[in-house]
Amino acid sequence: MIDLKKLPPATECNILDALRSYHTEPGKEESMLAHFAKGMRLHRFSAKRLADHCLPSTVSSLQRKHSITFSREWIEVRNRFKNPTRVKLYFLQGGSLMKAQMIVGGRAIHEKN
Question: What is the 3-state secondary structure (H, E, C) of the chain?
Answer without folding.
Answer: CCCHHHCCCCCHHHHHHHHHHCCCCCCHHHHHHHHHHCCCCECHHHHHCCCCCCHHHHHHHHHHHHCCCCEEEEEEEECCCCCEEEEEEEECCHHHHHHHHHHHHHHHHHHHC
